[in-house]
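Pair request: fold both.
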Amino acid sequence: MGSDNFNLASILRDHAASRPDHPALEMSGLVLSYHQVWQRVAELAAALGDQGVNAGDRVALALKEHPDHLLLHFAIAGLGAVLLPVDHRWSTAEKLGVCSAMNARLLVIEPDGETLEGLPAWRLQAGAELPGATLDPVPAGDRPWLISLSSGTTGRPKGALVTHREMYERFINQWVTLGFNATDRFLGVTPLYFGAGRSFGMCFLSAGASVILDPPPHQPQDLVASINNSRASVVFLVPTLMRRLLPMAADQQPLLPGLRRLVSSGEPLYPEEAAEIQQKLNRNLIAYYASSEGGGISILQPEEFDTYSDTVGRPGFRLRVEIVDADDQPLGIGETGRLRYAGPGVARRFLDEDGQETESGGWFYPGDLAAIDERGFVQLRGREKDVIIRGGVNVYPAEIEKLLSSRDDVRESAVVGRSSKERGEEIIAYVEADADALTERELLDFCRQRLAPYKVPSQIHVLASLPRAGSGKIDKKALGAGTA
């Protein structure tokens, strides 16, 4: 098949022909076969066409979690249009800023969703009957299919233009390196707006597997019941969710015994907690280091945690990972520098803050500092923007966070830099712990015994909970303002 003749939607069409009765998509008792899924994709595509959507048009989805939301990804692809993910929880200004900058042609919203001035909107009633239709996916292999946003939702957003072929190559990467296949039952507990929810949901449908949607929020006990009762073989959980499940585990029995793959992504796991997760939740833990714009980067397999748990694994299938200096010159083994990667699934075209298209040259820089050892394992050193320059010396927050989080009485930690007239920047640490049982002085003494003097934080604040972004990650922007 020629690259330009390919269309992501054609994968579902082929599954509908080869395995029509196989369960494809489930939610709250509703089970759709691949025949039914393809029929619904065709109906949704026709409805988009009735709204004036043509090939190349950008369609913003501001929807909640339901089967039609996921299937619209394929309907948009089938038309040769371009998907613009929008979080339905954003404010009016946030939605307007993204849709305007990215030149959206149509906004798809819930029946009670908010419209935006100057932008046509289609109110979609999830699951409502639509006129029967057929769909012949347009040739679109090297054409953009997705705008993957890479900056804030207000002001001047920007993003990667991911083609049909690049997205398919990302699926291949996941099938090969994460071991997903057509026999799996994937439980999706992440919002479809987020890169992981979108990518994994589409990946498993493209593999011919079964996808079960169980949208958040989840109480820990309900999440465990959902995973076990759904007979899921694969689930993706951010580390924050895994940490909330650990106290529920019994000493002898793993909490999630039926999983063939327990995928963690979004932030690195510390070695001690990775060992605890494998012991108490499921042995088949996989750490997946990825970015929404560029796709998967590296994978740490279950059997590698014992030896390489301080890394994020080795590069995925057909990926090149390099560590370079400020002038893009490759660095040696063990040297810390900017991480970049290239491969068939990595986006090459980007939209800048003005919506103008630029070329990347094939390399994508996720903004991380890292080093690679002699066996090819990647060790993250911190975010490029997070580097703290204290008295002219570079300090990497990840090292201090790893130390603080190694304590049993600290749930999580975050380290940020604050401007300082005396030293340029000072190191400020925050830990999530019981303030009645842990003091700043105790933590500072702990750091002084284990860190070089220039790495010891100036202040350590004990909080009942750390601020978080919508994805569940710690919101360092909320911690980093001010002057030390």
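--- second member of the pair ---
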Amino acid sequence: MFKAFRITVLLLILFFVAFGTWLTQARSTDWNNSLWVKVYPINADGSDTSQEYIDRLKIEDFTDIESFITQEIGKYGHTLARPVRMELGRQIHEQPPVIGDNTNPLDIAIWSLKMRWWAGDVAGPQDKPDPDVRIFIRYHAPSGQIVLENSVGLQKGMVGIVNAYAGRREASVNNVIIAHEFLHTLGATDKYEPGSGQPEFPQGFAEPDRKPLYPQTLAEIMGGRIALSKFDAIVPKSLNYVIIGDETAREIRLID
């Protein structure tokens, strides 16, 4: 009798957690209310350069993301004045959980759970109330010798990890990456080839009907790069050279 009661309670807890997650995800893409997106800087390499950059950060460094989202949802007929509200959190002094290079679905699922728990644990004390989306930015001193790890955005838990360079010249590119990972938390999928990073045609192209097709002049946000030729693409310098394409718009419920 007690065992059956315990199983029932556990099933009810799982149901309410799953329902709460679904409700949060549905609300995040109804575009009726502003989404509160909070960014938290992390000194990833422990350098003085990264720390000095973090110490000088201000919320205005991220408001281009607000303008980008407002502009792009407007193209799809949504008139919400401020769909995204950025906020700058205090520096986080712990590094996020690491996922290995050779992973299977179980490893990824376990890492995802660890990431969601970690995000709430390290940011929770400064979050009253909790933001809709948490983005942790791991800053590295700019160097031609360092290739940054891939950034990631999780829809479950609505949390992102962005690897970025600690430099004013890189700030606009950082915002492109932050916007990309933010849209992952809303359900948008990557639209580039994993090996080469080349945008997938047509969904990863900002101008798939352009004639001639190359060079493109803009990037689709989830395609990630501006395709200059079939085998060459560059990261856009800022969100001024980025759009939200139709397939991404469907994924985040801007259109049916």
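Observation on the second member. Confidence is low (pLDDT under 50) at residues 13-17.
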